[in-house]
Amino acid sequence: MALDHSDVKSIANLAKLAISDENIDKYKTELSSILDLVEQMNAVNTDDVEPLANPTDAVQRLRADVVTETNHREKYMANAPAQENGLFLVPKVVE
Amino acid sequence: MEWEVVIGLEIHAQLATKSKIFSGSSTAFGAEPNTQASLVDLGLPGVLPVFNQEALAMAVKLGCAIDAEIGKVSVFDRKNYFYPDSPKGYQTTQLHHPIVGMGHIEIDMEDGTSRRINVTRAHLEEDAGKSLHEDFSGMSGIDLNRAGTPLVEIVSEPEMRNAKEAVAYFKKMHSIVTYLGICDGDLSQGSMRCDCNVSLRPKGQQEFGTRTEIKNVNSFRFVEQAINVEIERQRDILEDGGTIIQETRLFDANKMETRSMRSKEVENDYRYFPCPDLLPIVIDDDYIEAIRKTLPELPDQKKQRLMSEHGLSEYDAAILTATRELAVYFEQVAEKCGDYKLAANWVMGELSAALNKSEAEIKTCPISAENLGAMIVRIKDNTISGKGAKSVFQNLWDQTGDDVDALIDSLGLKQVSDSGAIEGIVDDVLNANQAQVDQYVNAEPDKRGKMVGFFVGQVMKASKGSANPGIVNKVLKEKLGARC
Amino acid sequence: MKDSNMHNLTLSQISQGLNNGDFSSVEITQHYLDRIAKFDQGESGLNSFITVTAAQALADAKAADERRAAGNATAWTGVPFAHKDIFCTDGTLTTCGSKMLGNFIPPYDATVVDNFKQQGAVCLGKTNMDEFAMGSSNESSFFGPVKNPWNKETIPGGSSGGSAAAVAARLVPAATGTDTGGSIRQPAALCGLTGLKPTYGRCSRFGMIAFASSLDQAGPMTQTAEDAAMMLNVMASFDEKDSTSIDQAIPDYTATLNDDIAGKVIGIPKEFFPDSLDGEMAKTVRNAIAEFEKMGCTIKEISLPSTDLAIPAYYVVAPAECSANLSRMDGVRFGYRCENPKDVEDLYKRSRGEGFGDEVKRRIMIGTYALSTGFYDAYYVKAQKIRRLIKNDFVSAFEQVDIIMGPVTPSPAFKAGEKSGDPVEMYMEDKFTLSCNLAGLPGMSIPAGQINGLPVGLQMIGNYWSEASMLNMAHQFQSRTDFHKQAPQGIE
Q1: What is the pLDDT of residue B449?
Q2: Does residue A25 have a pLDDT over 90?
Q3: φ and ψ at A71, to 5 degrees?
Q4: Which residue, C214, C134, C224, is CA-closest to C188?
Q5: For B432, what's the count of Cα atoms within 13 Å in the CB-facing half-sphere?
Q6: Is C419 designated active site?
Q7: pLDDT given for residue C474 in this prediction
Q8: What is the per-residue pLDDT for B267?
Q9: pLDDT in tens, B220-232
Q10: Inter-chain CB proximity C241 and B84 less than 8 Å
């Protein structure tokens, strides 16, 4: 599968990755060759095969509905690049 | 051209669990920002979700209540999108294998008719945090207290044909989840929100027109208004030969318009896939049946019972059961006084008028169901008159007293029902008003009925209002009749 | 034995030495810290550590000595080791090898980290790794490549390359690793160590920064199988905080090391010895397997027909999961944020564009593409189906054999820079290790000999939850061979 310039731009946009124009060609080539590798999967027919999302046969465990957490705002927000009054700050969100 | 409106609703109801869907943080409303955001809710590197069993039980309860198929194997998926109030960059939700499949509810229209609306599905997911747009040095603030609050998203079939039906559906779903106790139903705090999908098509056409989605409408009134203005907008465009753009819109109640949410317009592709941090939720029939057994009486069942066992009209029964709080209040009043019809009259009449006037809700009603019931008991046993009862009611409302009998005593509202005492007063009144008695006697028999009123008034006046009007009427008719 | 050769002791010997009072925890901790200062830092240093927590380690060592004096010591009390920098450590920088987390100080401990703390073990620091565990050469670390102590011009393997190099150079007696597609086994093989990736669900993933959630598993990297058993005893736990942690009984892995292995049936998949495999590699690995025959094991040729599909399936599953797992790295709550973002979109794109390295970006983009509308079925679902076929291959194989053996890598350590220009060539490095992760099976690498002075590994793949048996077989092998005793030159 050969990706073109606009495919790469659109993927990068979905993934929220800024990629300079000069690098797009590099990614285009690399991603296309990875997709070629991936497409070796097509060599085998899997029509009747059930997909496997997780290697274990286990099922979801359930947690009791109990409040176990206490407030650690100061510690938990210590890594925030920008904060004020207990809020994380981001550039203005427009709705 | 004649247009047919097609409406489908997606209702998000916050489940009334104590802790979040995937963490042990409290779901309580109104805490200081980010004080109820745990490591998991903040989406810090390395943290993992563990599923809350109560959220599962509540979703299954909803499924049972709307007679839906329950997913024996349901799976959490990741819905990928970046937004500051979505800390992980994806929302954990259920796409392909929801916990609740196809079900249905009955909606009640104002004209007393009802119709079935099918529910496509209901799935579990996590709520997002909140972006606060007040000015923080030109930036927005992010509060993740709400992030991870369990939601059930209930998706209807596109079967509603006007805004009133949509509101009736929203109200009925609100009523069901609050009867079930799985959601507090508080619209003002965002406990229930509604996305309205609206499209128009030429009458008779099979395929749907292009729809728009009005996001996050948070009151019954706004649902009706938002849908109506959107119908108008789409109709105008279509009649001018234009086309509708499939998009997300926001309702502005001040301007009474919907407008495009441009920020959500950017290219998006949610790239759903099964969440690898969570395993399939597997439940069996025993589990489902055990939940089914815990279902309370639901609004439609309660309505039927009030009609068949207590003789209420369909209209009254529908109103009294519309919300769980009103229904509970009403039944307490009715049980206390033993007269469902009289209880209905007072709750739907005096009480509801007083609530409307003061813009209060039943849950903040100053008169307890116990007291209203006790007051009705005193009407029934003739201790007080209807007029006296209104006085008692007003005093209870104003909270100048909270013991019905003490109020009756202190206000002097106790009726004289002793016919001997009333006969004496009647005799005095008749003797003092001989001219009116003569008129009565000489009048045509069919005119006499109206003339009794004068004597009743005089007797009531003479008794300072304490005579039981029923008995006064009876005695007057006897005594006047004897003079004819 | 307070001498300058304490670092030649194995983990088990250190535990014994502390118990015997041959040396204190403070003494041995200081000895290793001195070695790290001498061999790891500077131009010619190995660069196997991103963070050395010397002061904390000495304080912990002192506390451990006191605990021992109080009579509450366990096998691990006072024993030095290191954590791969993928495990969150409360109050200690945890970078995952990325600029994105270059300033991230977790406010909590990973469960694996906590397990060691409970024992009073002494963590010396956090080891270097490929960025977000994506790589097979340790060249993708934001903190610079790690050198292989056997030959500093070669790579140590990855992604747990820092752990591997540090243990191989005896800068630390053991280190934790994580393995998503071979990230414990491949560097263990290239650095001459014993490395074990347990059954999926054996060790808690809580606090282990996720690369691909359904593949990631933590495990020990040590000099010997005996040490690996001692380490797995601490790492393995059932954790309520990890929904994929399995509540399976945890044996004492050291208790069965000396069991007789005669009669075990070893499966040799023909797909693990393709014609293209380097002849020296094939010979070395077959010679190692022959040792087991001498111990009474029987060899059975088997087939795992879907082996060649492991690479393509893996390079859909792992990128798809990582594309979502790394979305939380958005510059909002922690981690790198670009300068002066003009709006939220700019904040995301530049923070992520500048914070992630090339390989991480490639994988995020491949994963994003594989999950996008129109490609989901052809890529993601197809890969999940192949994943089923791969698991089924193993399930059938384990009906006939007790264990599967083959090479870990196609070749010994290659030169730095040799494959970093071609991602697909780099991916081929993991062709024998990926299927284990896709199936969730335990896999192990033990030293099997050398080619041109560089170590190569023997891979053992066991059935689910058979770690004790694998460690038993590995220990028996190591009781008869001395490949695991060899150490690189120039570290004395």
Answers
A1: 78
A2: yes
A3: -75, 120
A4: C224
A5: 11
A6: no
A7: 98
A8: 56
A9: 999 999 999 999 9
A10: no
Q: What is the pLDDT of residues C337-359, one digit of tens each?
A: 999 999 999 999 999 999 999 99
Q: Which of B83, B140, B278 best tests the A interface by mutation, with the highest count of A CBs <10 A?
A: B140
| B71 pLDDT tier (thresholds 50, 70, 90) | very high
A62–chain C nearest CA distance, Å: 9
Residue found under tokens 């300068």: C339
Q: Which residues of A touch C343 (CB under 8 A)?
A: 91-92, 94
| Residues 273-302, chain B, touching A (beta carbon < 8 A) | 274, 276, 278-282
* B138 touching chain C per CB within 8 A: no
Opening angle at CA C268, ends C264 and C273, nearest 5: 160
Rounded to whole angstroms, the maximal C-alpha distance in chain B is 100
B35–A contact, CB cutoff 8 A: yes
Determine contact: B227 vs chain A, CB below 8 A.
no
Q: How far is CA B285 from CA A59, B55, B65, B280, B296, in A?
A: 16, 18, 16, 16, 19
Non-local (6+) Cβ contacts of B68 within 8 A are B62, B100, B101, B102, B103, B104, B119, B122
Q: Which of C12, C141, C183, C351 is catalytic?
A: C183
A73 closest CA partner among A86, A83, A60: A86
Shortest Cα distance, chain C CAs vs residue A28, angstroms: 10
ipTM computed for the complex: 0.97
Beta bridge partners of A88: A83, B142
Residues of C in contact with B266 (CB under 8 A): 345
Q: Is the pLDDT of residue B262 over 70?
A: no
* Residue C84 is among the residues annotated as catalytic for this protein: yes
pLDDT band at C4 (very low <50, low <70, confident <90, very high): confident
Which of C12, C24, C25, C84 is catalytic? The answer is C84
As a whole-number percent, the residues of chain C with pLDDT over 70 amount to 99
What percentage of chain C exceeds 90 in pLDDT?
96
Predicted confidence (pLDDT) per residue in B4-40, tens digit: 999 999 999 999 999 999 999 999 999 999 999 999 9
Q: Which stretches of C326-433 are DSSP H helices? A: 344-355, 358-371, 382-397, 423-427
Which value, in Å, is the radius of gyration of the alpha carbons in chain C?
21
Please answer yes or no on whether A16 and C348 come within 8 Å at the CB atom. Answer: yes
User: Which residues, 6 or more positions from B234, have their beta carbon under 8 angstroms from its beta carbon?
Assistant: B198, B199, B200, B209, B212, B244
Interface test with C, best of A1, A16, A28 (most C CBs within 10 A): A16
Q: From CA B432, how far away is CA B430, in angstroms rounded?
A: 5
